[in-house]
Write a structure and sequence with these properties.
Blueprint (H helix, E strand, L loop, with lengths): L4 H31 L12 H9 L10 H13 L3 H6 L11 E2 L12 E3 L17 H7 L2 H17 L4 E2 L25 H18 L3 E7 L22 E3 L2 H8 L1 H8 L4 E4 L3 E2 L2 E2 L4 H11 L5 E4 L8 H5 L24 H8 L5 H18 L37 H11 L1 E5 L8 H7 L2 E5 L21 H5 L20 H12 L4 E4 L9 H14 L2 E7 L17 H9 L5 E6 L15 E6 L7 H9 L35 E3 L8 H7 L16 E13 L26 E11 L5 E10 L12 E10 L4 E9 L5 E3 L4 E3 L4 E6 L11 E6 L1
Parallel strand pairs: 2-3, 3-4, 4-6, 5-7, 5-16, 6-9, 11-12, 11-13, 13-14, 14-15
Antiparallel strand pairs: 1-2, 7-8, 10-15, 17-18, 18-21, 19-20, 19-24, 22-23, 24-25
Helix pairs in contact: 3-13, 5-14, 6-7, 6-14, 7-9, 14-20, 17-20, 18-19
Function: Beta-glucosidases are one of a number of cellulolytic enzymes involved in the degradation of cellulosic biomass. Catalyzes the last step releasing glucose from the inhibitory cellobiose.
GO molecular function: beta-glucosidase activity
Family: Belongs to the glycosyl hydrolase 3 family.
Length: 831
């Protein structure tokens, strides 16, 4: 979701001002903030006493215990509503507090419901947390952390009076292109990884935090170029069409949405693009056919902002809630859309049936009743979001916004630390030894503009609200740009965090940086100063970043602000050069990765407000890096799918054939025999792990999900019992020993290859299980995986059902991700 060009510019202006203010405030308060927050743990439990306390103070307790009960109550309310009241609930109204609000029915006590972005925190407000980005969470490969993230995120939305949270991103983008502007909003470039993490987030948001999850962006939304929202009068070019065949749609793009549907997501957002020639928010085949029928999705479909292109066609074809409705932030009207007054006219003229209107209202009310309130809407929370639009250059007041952070910095920091992915560590330079550095009275040079906060003390925006885009971005990158961006209450930048850590743990060590006092220092001047510092330092840590941005795809996979050149120049004069990267997705590292003085490389992604605090424990060995790449790193852009970003320019009806099928990201490399620089799932540790006793055997456990089941058809198999596509039919197990000298977490990954004659299966291997556990030094832990019928099935396009192919399945596990298959442990099962 995003706004018109005018709002987009306004968004940048505000972000500019708020970021530099937050960073300036941090420079004043950092020492206290950081020192008080050492060695903390996040408690994810919401016990019954806590829930009762919430109720006593006006917070939601949760609604009815089952969807059926909630739906029954919704129908009772609908039976008492007039047509005017019904259609009033189907369209967005004033956005005074929230990203969007629904119409209300005061006569029945039904309030306006608040909808708000996004996956990194509450957007467009103050005094809320800036969480780690979804791609950062994906790098943890931890279902447990996904659940903790969902709970903490949901608590802030809950306490701010939000009803629907626009999260998680379960696909759109899924990772078809490494250049996708919104890659950083995804949960990794793999449908299985995304499905597991996304379903955990949905459950925590709804069942524990009592906010309704909006899973997005459905479906095939894989680039920003030519997405062309319908926010102004009809333009000359329609949005691009993602032309996806039936097999690819089921086997790849629907997979993660099926998982979040089974988790009970109460809302799904339809995307800007067209699918197979039809605008997605009025696409009967995908909304009614795939989503509402096949996946049995029982919540409501909301349009992304400006994605509705029709009148009654959208309503009849599956769109339930039109946003922004009568105008976003009062700046532009939505010239199309059959909701509100137009929807009433459509009903009266017979173009839309009254039963469809009842269905829409039922789909809007039921998730609210299921997860938040009873039909009396007791303890309703008025939204407490302070709309920051238009407030540029104003000091951030503690009286504004929600003040809802609780102790969420703990889980933000934990996700940041566990996401850090060490892809290289020659000569075991990492972890840095506090004792040796202190004894030597060593000097550490912290280099690169990404290491520190903004240097202009809040002067990037002038009194005329004109901001320099380059100045806005100067400083460490903690989040991407766009509607998912959340204003941080502060940012703990890497430079200040390292200074604080060293002062407390190795006081004889000197920290120097190339940070300038004013923006008048040119890039060349900073680089020269950095090289001089590196030449004299015992250790040089170079920080670099790349930017991910809604509305704009990346033009290349290089680092920004000449960071690649800086890394090479520093490595030429310092034998212990460590590189830390904050990126939204893949970047190319070939210019410098093989330099013998580049000893260690860490991917830190977009870690949110706790950036530096999550990095220092890994740098200095308090924690072992345990992140794994949630995407592949190639050696050149041409290694990836060719023309993965299509820009047809003035083509009236641009179409993009997804002819690669299911072969996106790492699966493309794997099937085409392209050797990556670092494979999907790769990540090093300070410990060493050995795998043994790998086995896979047939078993049967019935599907435990009874409330949110799907209608996905499957072909019975003579050797497999059960009545659900999600019954467990195989169990895999492997024992992992930590042969190192410190406790560390290992991510075990389970891959599968299908029988050779499996019709339609072009992927050489697929991910079908993963888990993360901490293992003590010298200890062994057994990992067990449940493999479901769907996990070993292929979509049969002829008979329109899932089918287990006959033949031999091979399972693989072992360290270092999706590569070196012949070196992994293997097990075989025949069906």
């Amino acid at each position: 979701m995003y706004t018109s060009n005018l709002v987009q510019k306004l968004f940048i202006l505000i972000s500019c001002s708020l970021l530099v203010q937050a960073r300036s405030l941090l420079d004043l308060d950092f020492g206290i903030e950081f020192s008080q927050r050492e060695n903390v743990e996040f408690s994810p439990a919401l016990d019954l006493q806590k829930r009762q306390a919430d109720a006593d103070t006006g917070h939601r307790q949760g609604g009815y215990t089952t969807w059926t009960e909630a739906e029954s109550e919704a129908k009772k309310l609908i039976g008492m509503m007039t047509l005017d009241e019904k259609v009033n609930m189907t369209v967005g109204i004033d956005q005074e507090f929230c990203t969007g609000m629904t119409g209300s029915v005061p006569r029945l006590g039904i309030p306006s419901f608040c909808l708000s972005d996004g996956p990194t925190g509450i957007s467009v407000t103050y005094n809320v947390s800036q969480f780690a980005s979804p791609i950062t969470l994906a790098a943890t490969w931890s279902p447990q952390l996904a659940s903790q993230h969902g709970l903490a995120l949901g608590q802030e939305f809950h306490d701010s009076g939000v009803n629907f949270i626009f999260a998680p991103v379960a696909g759109g983008p899924l990772g078809r292109s490494p250049l996708a502007g919104r890659f950083w909003e995804s949960l990794g470039a793999d449908e299985y990884l995304t499905g597991v993490l996304g379903s955990q987030i949905v459950k925590a948001l709804q069942e524990d935090a009592n906010v309704v999850a909006c899973t997005k962006h459905f479906i095939g939304y894989e680039q920003e170029s030519d997405r062309n929202m319908n926010t102004l009068l009809p333009q000359t070019q329609k949005p691009y069409s993602s032309d996806i065949d039936d097999f690819t749609m089921h086997q790849l793009y629907m997979w993660s949405f099926a998982e979040t549907a089974r988790a009970g997501t109460g809302q799904v957002m339809c995307s800007y693009n067209r699918v197979n020639g039809t605008q997605q928010c009025q696409n009967d085949a995908s909304l009614n056919g795939l989503l509402k029928h096949e996946l049995n999705f029982r919540g409501n479909v909301v349009s992304d902002y400006g994605a509705a292109y029709s009148n009654e066609e959208a309503t009849n074809n599956g769109l339930d809630l039109l946003m922004p409705g009568e105008g976003q932030f009062g700046i532009y009207p939505n010239y199309r859309g059959a909701h509100g007054e137009k929807l009433k006219d459509a009903v009266n003229s017979g173009k839309v049936k009254i039963e469809r209107i009842d269905d829409i209202v039922k789909r809007i009310l039921t998730p609210i009743l299921r997860f938040q309130y009873t039909s009396k809407f007791q303890n309703f929370i008025t939204p407490k979001i302070h709309n920051a639009y238009g407030i540029v250059g104003t000091p951030v007041s503690n009286d504004l916004g929600s003040k809802v952070q609780r102790d969420h910095f703990k889980v933000i920091r934990k996700i940041g630390s566990e996401s850090i992915t060490m892809v290289k560590n020659e000569r075991n330079v990492l972890p840095l030894s506090k004792a040796k550095l202190n004894e030597k009275k060593a000097t550490i040079a912290i280099l690169g503009s990404d290491a520190h906060g903004s240097t202009d003390r809040g002067k990037s925006c002038n009194p005329n609200n004109e901001c320099d885009d380059i100045l806005y971005d100067q400083g460490t990158q903690t989040d991407g740009q766009g509607s998912a961006f959340a204003y941080p209450p502060y940012i703990i930048n890497p430079l200040d965090a390292i200074k604080s850590y060293v002062k407390a743990n190795a006081p004889q060590v000197t920290i120097q940086s190339s940070r300038g006092k004013h923006f008048s220092i040119s890039t060349a001047d900073r680089a020269s100063r950095a090289v001089d510092l590196a030449r004299k330092a015992d250790v040089a840590i170079v920080f670099g970043n790349a930017r991910g941005k809604e509305t704009e795809d990346r033009s290349n996979l290089t680092l920004r602000e000449h960071a690649d050149d800086l890394i090479k120049r520093v490595a030429a004069v310092n034998k212990q050069t460590i590189v830390v990267l904050h990126t939204p997705g893949p970047v190319l590292v070939e210019e410098w990765i093989d330099h013998p003085n580049v000893t260690s490389v860490l991917f830190a992604y977009y870690p949110g407000q706790e950036s530096g605090a999550s990095l220092t424990p890994v740098l200095f060995g308090d924690e072992s890096p345990s992140g794994r790449l949630p995407f592949v790193i190639g050696k050149k852009l041409d290694d990836w799918l060719p023309n993965s970003i299509s820009d047809p320019h003035l083509t009236i009806h641009p179409r993009i054939p997804f002819s690669e099928g299911i072969l996106i990201d790492w699966k493309w490399f794997d099937a085409k025999g392209i050797k990556p620089r670092y494979p999907f799932g790769h990540g090093l540790s300070y410990a060493s792990f050995s795998y043994s006793s790998f086995e896979v055997h047939k078993t049967f456990l019935p599907d435990k999900e009874t409330e949110f089941t799907t209608n996905e058809a499957f072909e019975p198999h003579q050797n497999v019992q059960g009545s659900s596509l999600y019954d467990t039919v195989l169990e895999a197990s492997v024992t992992v020993k930590n042969a190192g000298k410190m406790k560390a977490s290992e991510v075990v990954q389970l891959y599968i290859s299908f029988p050779k004659d499996s019709t339609g299966m072009t992927a050489s291997h697929l991910l079908r299980g993963f888990d993360k556990k901490e293992i003590g030094a010298g200890e062994s832990v057994k990992f067990t995986f449940s493999i479901r019928r769907k996990d070993i099935s292929i979509w049969d396009t002829v008979h329109q059902r899932w089918r287990i192919p006959s033949g031999e399945f091979t399972f693989f596990t072992g360290p270092q991700g999706a590569a070196d298959w012949d070196k992994k442990l293997q097990a075989r099962v025949i069906f």
